[in-house]
From TrEMBL:
This is TldD/PmbA family protein. It comes from the Bacteria. Pfam families: PmbA_TldD_1st, PmbA_TldD_2nd, PmbA_TldD_3rd. Residues 231-446 form the Metalloprotease TldD/E C-terminal domain.
């Protein structure tokens, strides 16, 4: 894998070629890295893969027209040809008054913080194999587990660099490590499957792989002999395994692109969406965060901000193009790959913990369902309608009792958000995190 300095040098060469080719302005991104994974099943290695890749994405402008080209050959002649092709394509493109680079005065100028996303480690296939086998072994050792869906471990190290024709140039490197196991309990028609996994930026932060495996086995056995509750309207609790998805639906609805197109069920940037006290925060500078970044895909410095404050939206998530369409300023949420113009995406998100413990919530509601698995994509950001297959556990007389499967839960996101109550069990494990969430009045389709 090349260094950040080398990646930026390649981008400098690209921008110089674009200028010679006649681009009025331009930007370019480098994405590259090394990755490896090992998958196992029943104590045997099934697959070992390793890859190294690097690609540069070019965006060339000819006034208010633009075009994008990607290349993986960094030889000077190949770069020159890609630049000529990008400019020629841009001159033939449809004009777009909203496209363009962010104003120069908005670019990140000060020294960027070290977010500790890179532990400097290298891929070790022997260690990955050992972790994968140990994780699966621990899952299979749980009493009641009868078969394995497999286990695995992976490691990667990658670099992202961005340079623009009006003076921005920066790069960031990150490592990632993960381990998982998926096993089966029971036999015949009474078989159930579940899994557990963990990932971290630094290898030192990865959970003990045997604990991950044991959790996979325990979860799977707990799902044996499920029942179907009677259909009706009831209280639903979303376990932290699935509750981040609720935050994700909000993010999709406040994406500036959806707002500009008029395809979101939310229309007011300062609407009272949740109940009082509910907060959703974004922290792109969290040390070792899964999605930490000091600058966005257009060179804007990122900053910690509230997405929802005391239940009220604080605005939309915007890149430069969406901001221009809406007559606003970009919020530093441009997300960039090597193909096409920037999209929109957040960094590290979390819903703040509430004041009531999960155990107290369960005891107070008496009866309901704890959801630990969601199936399907039945969510409309246009209307807010929500309908998904689900599995989990019954709550009876204030206690978690029998497993349930094959049910459907439905509602509308506006109503769900308004009634949502977060518990106090927030943990930071993913790029988006949320505690257990209680939502009253959801429709459950069972028997």
């Amino acid at each position: 894998m090349i260094t950040e300095t080398d990646a930026l040098a390649h981008l400098e060469t690209v921008l110089a070629a674009l200028k010679r080719a006649g681009a009025s302005h331009a930007d370019a991104v480098y994405v590259g890295g090394d990755s490896a994974s090992v998958s196992v099943r029943l104590g045997n290695v099934e697959d070992i893969s390793r890859s190294e890749d690097a690609e540069i994405g070019i965006r060339a402008f000819a006034g208010d027209r633009s075009a994008s080209v990607a290349l993986s050959d960094f030889a000077p002649a190949a770069i020159a040809e890609a630049a000529r092709r990008a400019v020629a394509m841009a001159r033939l493109a449809t004009p777009d008054e909203h496209a363009g680079l962010v104003p120069e005065e908005m670019l990140a100028k000060t020294a960027l913080p070290d977010l500790q996303t890179d532990d400097g480690g290298t891929v070790d296939l022997t260690a990955l194999e050992a972790n994968a086998l140990q994780c699966e072994d621990a899952a299979r050792a749980v009493h009641g587990v009868t078969n394995s869906g497999g286990g695995g471990a992976s490691a990667s190290r990658g670099t992202f660099a961005l340079a623009t024709s009006h003076g921005f140039a920066a790069a960031r490197t990150g490592t990632s490590y993960s381990v998982y196991a998926s096993v089966i309990a029971g036999e015949g028609e009474n078989m159930q499957r579940d899994y557990a996994s963990h990932s971290a930026r630094h290898l030192a932060d990865l959970e003990d792989v045997s604990e991950v495996g044991s959790r996979a086995g325990t979860r799977t056995v707990a799902r044996l002999n499920p029942v179907k509750p009677k259909s009706g309207v009831m209280t639903v609790l979303f376990d932290p395994r699935v509750s981040p998805g609720i935050v994700g639906h909000l993010i999709g609805a406040i994406n500036g692109g959806a707002i500009a197109r008029g395809t979101s069920f939310l229309t007011e940037p300062d609407a009272q969406v949740f109940g009082a006290g509910v907060a959703i925060l974004e922290d792109p500078h969290r040390a070792r965060g899964h999605r930490s970044r000091a600058f966005d895909g257009e060179g804007i410095a990122t900053t910690r901000r509230s997405i929802v404050e005391d239940g009220r939206l604080t605005g939309w998530l915007l890149n430069n193009a969406a901001a221009r369409q809406l007559g606003l300023a970009t919020t530093g949420h441009a997300a960039r790959g090597t193909g096409g113009p920037p999209g929109i995406g957040p960094s590290n998100l979390h819903m703040a913990a509430g004041t009531q413990s999960r155990e107290d919530m369960i005891a107070a509601i008496g009866s309901g369902i704890l959801i630990t698995e969601l199936i399907g994509q039945g969510v409309s950001i246009v209307t807010g309608d929500y309908s998904r297959g689900a599995g989990g556990f019954l709550i009876e007389n204030g206690e978690i009792t029998r497993p349930v499967s094959g049910i459907t839960i439905a509602g509308n996101l506006k109503d769900m958000f308004a009634r949502l109550i977060p518990a106090s069990d927030l943990e930071f494990r993913h790029a988006t995190n949320a505690p257990t969430l209680l939502v009253e009045g959801m429709t459950v389709a069972g028997e």
